Amino acid sequence: MRALTWHGKHDVRVETVDDPEIVNPRDAIIRISSTAICGSDLHLYDGYIPTMQAGDILGHEFMGEVVEAGPGSSLRKGERVVVPFTIACGRCYHCGKQQYSACDNGNPADNQDLGQALYGQPMSALFGYSHLTGGYAGGQAEYVRVPFSDVGPIVVPDGIEDDRVLFLSDILPTGWMAAENAGIEPGDTVAVWGCGPVGLFAVQSAFLMGAERVIAIDHFPHRLELALKFGAETVNFEESKTYEALMEMTGGIGPDACIDAVGLEAHGFFVDNVIDQIKASTFLGTDRTHSIRQAIIACRKGGRISMPAVYGGFVDKFPLGALMEKGLTLKTGQTHVQRYLPALLAAILDGDIDTTFLISHHLPLEEGPEGYRMFHDKQNEVTKVVLKPGMAATH
Amino acid sequence: MSDIRDDAPLTTSKNRTAVDEASAILVEPKGDALVGRTVTINRPRAELYAFWRDFTNLPTFMDNVARVNVLDEHRSHWVVKAPAGKTVEWDAIITEEKEGELIAWASAEGASVPNSGRIDFRDAQGYRGTIVTATILYDPPAGVVGRMVAKLFQREPAIQARRDLRRFKQLMEAGEVATAARNPAQHQQQQEE
Q1: Which residue has the higher pLDDT, A275 or A324?
Q2: How close B28 comes to chain A (CA, Å)?
Q3: B177: chain A residues, CB-CB within 8 Å
Q4: Does residue B87 have a pLDDT over 60?
Q5: What gap in Å lies between CA B128 and CA B43, rounded to an integer?
Q6: Which homologous superfamily is B23-192 in?
Q7: Which of A144-148, A381-385, B30-34 has the highest mean pLDDT?
Q8: What whole-number distance in Å separates Cα of residue A374 and Cα of residue A16?
Q9: Is the pLDDT higher at A301 or at B112?
Q10: What is the nearest CA distance from A142 to chain B, expressed in angstroms?
Q11: Rounded to an integer, what distance in angstroms lies between the CA atom of residue B170 and that of residue A92?
């Protein structure tokens, strides 16, 4: 089959590789109909995530048709499914508590050592996202092997277009859980750093959960426009001072809840000038600063911080004092996708949530490398790239 | 430090005398390197014990055990993979067992890698299933150098014990051992490595 493979920083290719087959009883094989490039794929593309190996198949947002199911699978041939990016066994202690992204068993035993050494407990498994999280082949391919297929994939009705349900795989439940983790109360003002897909879905979710005002922060005008469409107020951090703006917009109180949907590649932060930047300012006064730090500083006393953003290692100058002295609550984690699927699918089918606005480009799988380049280089206009195996070439 | 020992398991001790203390809990201690590991498995104690007690099941989750032949009620023959494609073999004898609680063994006379140990099964608190603890004493093949070579090939007993227990947990909880292999051929190749 054809698959998009990683070979190093800014080097992804479409190659012919072995077809996946059933290995374990609970497996299913899915023929991919749509697969998206995620913002977190750019962390791989930029070489920030360790334990990648040349030839690894990328992609953790995908859907398609069941072409084969093992004897332990609940799926049947021909069913259309959206597959969660988190691989969960459904039977361990964590899965029993619906903490699917903390599943003990999805990550092969040999791959658990590094996570245990880094984080104190082994990482759970994800599709197409380094060997730290299992080394599973991803879905930017014609076919994919889905383990524990009786637990993860959700069957979607035949009539519904891929674009309406594809984002159940990751970014929609991630945005939803981000808002849930913000503990929103009626009358709240919620600030969201980053208007990428997760941030935009967090904006929608926050309103659905009863937020009175949502303030969206970014520097790409087109992304801020999208946030505006969903009723958010906007702050462009290149035009205005973010902390000061948030304080003034909330009557000097600060947002009740702050959502960091940016993460480890915050623009202007993860570069060599970072240290200088911090030293040169109190880090309150700079605009292009690290989002989580700013969220903690801006948040009102007794407020809540939700951090769906991906971080991998250590953060310097973390404002632990502000976290304690203001009595903030911080919630974070990879998304427990499986927990949210039935309710979010229903919301989509009922028309309460629309995800199609996000897609700016459809490309054939064969043009995947171009898709990565576009998504990486033109974040203002390229909001989401969906790859389609078998689609005719665009040029 | 006072003479009163803390509650931490012997396998986590910073003190070299831990090996002697661990030997004291084995009926027939063999070996002078101590490894141990605990895992919580969300299944009933009796089920886990029964699966483990049938030693022919062990190669399904112990990657370095090629096969186990049960010779009689107490004696079994083990064929274990060693670095560089070799195998080592020995007979193991059950030295103590309590239904649903404990299996202890020691290698028979003449084993090339003298070893002994015990597997304990205890109920976990809060309906979390069963706590399984492996405590193993062994003589590293060819001493320290052999141990380093084994580590290089990831056949070092401490690494193996940790990974074997994780696979045991996967098999008992999820019904299968997790693998990222894309097809059976790749799976086979990974197991042989």
Answers
A1: A324
A2: 31
A3: 24, 108-109
A4: yes
A5: 8
A6: START domain (3.30.530.20)
A7: A144-148
A8: 23
A9: A301
A10: 13
A11: 9
